[in-house]
Amino acid sequence: MGYTEEQRRLLWLSAAEITADKVRRLLAERGSAQTLWEDFAHGEALSGNAEANRILNRYHSEIAMDALLERMEKLGVTPLFTDDGAYPPLLGCIDDPPYVLYGMGDVTALSRPSVAVVGTRYPSAYGRNMARSIAYGLCEAGVCVVSGMARGIDGNAHEGAMDAKGQTVAVLGSGVNVPYPLDNIGLYRKIIAGAGAVISEYPLDAAPQTYHFPHRNRVISGLSHAVVFVEGRVKSGGMITVSTALQQGRDVFAVPGCVGQAGAEGPHTIIREGAILATSAADILEDLGLSSAKNTAESQPPQPPEGDNPTQKAILKALLREPMGMDALCAQTGIAADALMAELSVMEIMGQTRRDSGNIFALAIRATRTE
Amino acid sequence: MLARTLSGGLEGIKGFLVDVEACISNGMIGFDIVGLPSIAVKESRDRIRAAITNSGYPWPMKKLTVNLAPADVRKEGTSLELAIAVALLAAQKPDLYPTLNRTLLLGELTLHGELMPIRGVLSMVLAARESGIREVVLPEGNAREAQCLGDIGIHPAGTLQQAIEHLTGRQPIPQQEQIPYERLLEEQPLEHDLKYVKGQKIARKALEVAAAGGHNLLMVGVPGSGKTMLARCLPGILPPLSYEEALETTCIHSASGELAREAGLMTQRPYRSPHHNVSLPAMIGGGTKAKPGEVSLAHNGVLFLDELPEYQRQTLEALRQPLEDGYVNVTRVNGQARYQSRCMLVAGMNPCPCGNHGSKIKPCRCKPFEIQRYLARISGPLLDRIDMQVEMDAVSIDEIENSEPQEDSHTVQQRVLAARMRQLERYREENYFCNANLPQEGIEKYCSMSPEASALLKRAVEQFHISMRAYGRIRKVARTLADLAQHGDLELQDVAQAIQLRNLDGQYWR
């Protein structure tokens, strides 16, 4: 792949993690990255950070840059520049877009209409279920789901998207060659293998520094038409994404929870402040005007599942009123515990019910395809 | 002026015979014990002298030498005192004591001449029986321990005097009646019965399955949800101890001094619940003399570890090998022993550090990362040895008060027995005997599933991201459920229930 000289200079700056802000300021001052390269050759320190200057120095030769580019090619990493056609147009409109975006996998996913689904790293069973089901519904309508590949809601959103065989984009807070958190390495591999793209503005091998994450959240919202906040506290990464979305003029949706539960705090706060309440993917698609003809017919609140046999019907009927434990279910349905246990796990696998902590069973919102 | 008597010593939990020789000779007046006696044995000289004189027998004012053979094994404890006293008396009048070479003498003496109970009687009597000895004189306090041995004459004596009168034939002590083991089994009331456990249907089922298949079990629940109560019920639903198991278990407990005074053969499976500050040697076995640890005291029974994450990590990790192999080798400077440790592990833990995660009544105050860190204290390899990880129900007061009567332990035990029989029948040509011990190839061989069951499990694996190892565990548990339900192949219901009893990995350890 050939890169222009200017692009090579930008990659050089990016390798040392010079922030988008600073690069924009320097470019405004000096005109081009090439000037910076030459100034650096004359002994000017471009960064106040000694480590950054050391890296700038290491790559300050054509040979070193060639080696870096070759390695990127070998790993299948595509760098995108703001003046490229492939650079996501929505992201280009924000205040401080990354001047280089490293992508792995299918980077065309970035140009699709997208919605971000974000939330806490420690969701409840309800939150997990909602994240999956919303991501699933969005993908079925051809929308790309953007998230941060973190533990919890982020991971569930990616899973939901992949269940629907849709496209999904993970925006990392580390280099694209550094899957983080390691728990989600399976997701990382699957996304790269064909479910979408993993992207980052940080150089290939950047470690997941804590200060990367709030900063990367502006990319998650910047890539998307709207942000859906599923669960999280008032002080959380999800709330940062919500505020960057507002700065960027994106729509913000919130999934309501149960008053008094920690995870519902964040969504409820932003709903009071004007976020749109969303109970399903259909709500979001409709508000964004993204729902196709096929989906408008279906854009009604999700229906509770029906049940295949008398036992299942009885269970669903009991759970429709409120979530309950095994003893209460036995009493309400009059069915033996053994049979209930077996049937409940079948139903959980089929995505009709879910089990919360304390063995409380509840109705689930359909998150996966039912054959 | 020589005499020889027979007594017993303990090495670890094994008994061995000790020849006690006494020699009365002319020379400087004194009393010496040779043959590697420990300090406790040397101290016994004063007790023996007082006991003999206070029982009305003459104390020879000569040079007394007592030898304990084999002389290269260290003799611990007080089991030899009766034998030494009798040897000293017999050395004065050898003709009065015709049966000394075929009678085992055990017991500690007081200054008054009473016989006190000792540790490890059963092990020593068994060792004597192996060498063909058929007569035993032992303290009354230990008599019940040896009441189920069949063809051996047990003569319980209360004092030194009674023992001497018996040995000289002037006033023989009648043989203690030997009772068949089955009769002992009948007369045991259940302390902890499942009928008192309210609610907790899922955990009850898990307990039954654990008993039926020998699976280890982890219960996660808020404080007061009944984890300890359920665990205490487990010995009562396991099959009754067989005679051999009862002997093994009693030997271990008797030798460790854990057996209550006057206690007979153990007929209840042991239930051990060491506190979580237990040290590694106390758990596995050790100390200067390589004593058996908790895991061996729980042999043939239940080892309950409450507050699992609070145990020291190395203590838990050290449990892996004994749980796997069924025995533990303890090596110390002064001793080396192999103790059996075939026990079921039942563990309880809170869902989070404050304990209220998922509670209906109290809110949880823990930060998510605190919960993560708390759960991470239990290592994956240890979890791999625990087939079932169930969560306790969150129950409220009304539910407890309004619940219907529950099944009692006896009914459950009958089902467990039937399931165990099926397993014994199925595995009679294998070197394992219950579902929990199924190796990988055994799972393939014995856990074939009906097509619907297989399809369901496959779907569950995708849905819940179940690892291959957890997949194997679910099949083993489903095998036990099928045994309980008298199914040949694993049917849909068995697999579905096994998934319900799964592995919290989905929720907690992900």
Beta-strand share of residues of chain A: 5-15%
Main beta sheet strand tally, sense and closure of chain A: 9 strands, mixed
Detail the poorly predicted runs of chain A: 293-301
Largest interface: A-B, 30 and 36 residues
Give the total of beta strands of chain B.
18
Concise account of the structure shown:
The complex is a heterodimer of chains A (371) and B (510). With 371 residues, chain A is an alpha/beta fold.
Task: Set out the fold topology.
The complex is a heterodimer of chains A (371) and B (510).
Chain A: H1 5-15, H2 20-30, H3 33-41, H4 50-58, H5 62-75, E1 77-81, H6 89-92, E2 100-105, E3 114-118, H7 125-140, E4 144-147, H8 153-163, E5 168-171, H9 185-195, E6 196-200, H10 212-223, E7 226-229, H11 237-247, E8 251-254, H12 265-272, E9 276-277, H13 281-288, H14 293-296, H15 310-321, H16 326-333, H17 337-349, E10 353-356, E11 360-363
Parallel strand pairs in A: 3-4, 3-7, 4-5, 5-6, 7-8, 8-9
Antiparallel strand pairs in A: 1-2, 2-6, 10-11
Chain B: E1 2-11, E2 14-25, E3 30-34, H1 39-54, E4 63-69, H2 81-92, E5 103-105, E6 108-109, E7 115-116, H3 121-130, E8 135-139, E9 153-157, H4 160-167, H5 181-186, H6 201-213, E10 217-220, H7 227-237, H8 243-255, E11 271-272, H9 280-284, E12 285-286, E13 291-292, H10 294-297, E14 302-305, H11 313-318, H12 320-325, E15 327-332, E16 335-340, E17 344-349, H13 368-375, H14 380-384, E18 388-391, H15 397-401, H16 409-426, H17 440-446, H18 451-464, H19 468-484, H20 492-500
Parallel strand pairs in B: 3-4, 5-8, 8-9, 10-17, 10-18, 11-14, 14-17
Antiparallel strand pairs in B: 1-2, 2-4, 6-7, 12-13, 15-16
